[in-house]
Amino acid sequence: MKKLHILLALISILALGGSFSTILLAQDSSSVAVYTAHEIVTLNPAQPVVEAVAVKDDRIVAIGSLEEIQQSLSGQSLTIDSRFDDLVLIPGLINQHEHAWLASLLFMTEILSIEDWVLPEKTVSRVSDAADYRERLRNAVEDHSDPSEVLYTWGFHQLFHGELTRTDLNEISDTIPIVVLQRSLHEQIHNTRALEYFGIDQAMIDAAPESVQDQTNLAEGHFWEQGQSLIVPTVFADLFRPSRYIPALEKIEAYWHAAGSTLIAEPGGTVSAALVALQNQVLGDAETPFRMYYIADGRSFVRNFPEEEVIVETEKLFTSAKGMTEFVPGQVKLFADGAMFSQLMQMSEGYLDGHHGEWLMEPEDFAKAFRIYWDAGYQIHIHQNGDAGLDLVLDNLEANINRNPREDHRTVIVHFGFSRRDQVDRLAELGAIVSANPFYPVVLADRYSEVGIGQERAQEMVRLGDLVRADVSLSLHSDTPMASGQPLRLMSNAVNRITVNGNVAGPTQRISAERALRAVTLDAAYSLRMEDEVGSIMPGKLANFTVLFENPLNVSTQMIENIKIWGTVHEGRILPLP
pLDDT confidence of 270, banded at 50, 70, 90? Predict the structure, then answer.
């Protein structure tokens, strides 16, 4: 993490006029920029809304009224900047969980998904049913200009679009290689031409571990969860070739900036120094409008190295990030159960149709990895979607706390798709925190009420209200393209829980706008151990602001996602949108 650029010599609270205080950081005599605004929402309980903020280089040095700041910094060289007088400043928005390579698929694939996608260059309407999906896929095949190149499409969901197999794809085209990336990206379906293109055959499957073989079906061209490990190296080497990936990265950089984002975290999505180096070409540049922080994928290191080498090998990756990207030391990502969008979560009461969930790490492998990183003092972020998956996580957390107690471990439950009310109390008692995807109920609650899950469980998915009532630290994330990479939209999802069909999913699980704002700013920073640097507008912190045309705490809750964004201030740099 970036070190302080100025000495924190003095922090004082001056009572001025008996009604308001100005908090300031002692400064030298060089110029200080003082920005005034219609409102500045600080998330500082002592001064929740102020008129002005003073910035020296990349740091906040004072907040308060303009008069208070002028008095407090008398003797300093001040430049008053009123460009934000009709605008609202909030703490810089944080995308707590993203994957640049996944998000870039929005710009590298044919989108055929279950919801609308509004992108800078186009709007892609949702694909409503099986007939619509097949018609749209046929149109994509007809428009595919080079039959020697693979046609990649993303967004398919069998519960919305019907079953899809290798044979179905062959009927659409037996000459063009087609790869269908399921909505969750935890599954792929190939036609025969694609299998031939990538050299995927039964001999390859037979040589794999049993757990991998169990999650493949060559006859149907279907590979899911651990089964994808067989094909991802060759498929993604083609999909993410630099000539395609670099332009997509440039677009996702602009997309996140347009969302008002000032910090991006990528937990567990990048395990290759080569991929980091490729991403550095775009995201590491000094002109990047945000910082990007990687968190290592512990699963791959535990799988590929002897136990005594895991930590050393993990930390070798840390030096690969450069410039505006860096690894967060002492943090790691692990994986429990399967994908939410595939209904492959591990559910304690099973599924209505009798199918079963999957493990992304076998329970014994998960336990081993958790113990290794716990004993090394790491903060552990864990992908979890089903309540049985959460049982696995909490059982391991409790066992390791009892075996090797640690203070302030901040174990992060990531996604938090399904849980039981008793688990909320248990994770609170164990000191775990949650990073949730609030879009799940919006897009899935209605359909999952009908298929696989049932009304009672589906309506209570992502139980944010219970977390708030249990006083659990909560952040929100999108995991683009699992949800739109726009923090204001995540706020709206969490506050309203209005489904794509216009229903309210689990009304008691809605949270307040203020708590939702904290979840994409200060509490998101807390989940990354960066709350002393970012997340609120306070002296000593980085000057990261998102500049809006309206205050998200004052508008109608259903208008939050429609607030226009002027741009950002990132570490003192003023970055208006084009």
Answer: low
The residue written with tokens 């992304």 in the block is 360
In a domain, 521, yes or no: yes
Q: Is residue 568 part of a domain?
A: yes
CA distance 44 to 535: 10
DSSP-assigned beta bridge partners for residue 73 = none
Query: Structural domain of residue 507, as residue ranges?
Result: 242-529
pTM, two decimal places? 0.92
Q: How far apart are CA 526 and CA 538, in angstroms?
A: 15
Domain-embedded: residue 99: no
13 belongs to a structural domain: yes
Last residue of a domain, one of 512, 529, 546: 529
| pLDDT tens string 325-383 | 999 999 999 999 999 999 999 999 999 999 999 999 999 999 999 999 999 999 999 99
| Cβ–Cβ under 8 Å, residues 87 and 108 | no
Is 137 in the same domain as 85? no
Residue 73 near residue 54, CB atoms below 8 Å: yes
* Listed residues 239, 272, 293: the one ending a domain: 239
Residue whose tokens read 């799940």: 440
The rounded Cα 195 to chain-centroid distance in angstroms is 31
The pLDDT tens digits of the residues spanning 139-193 come to 999 999 899 999 999 999 999 999 999 999 999 999 999 999 999 999 999 999 9
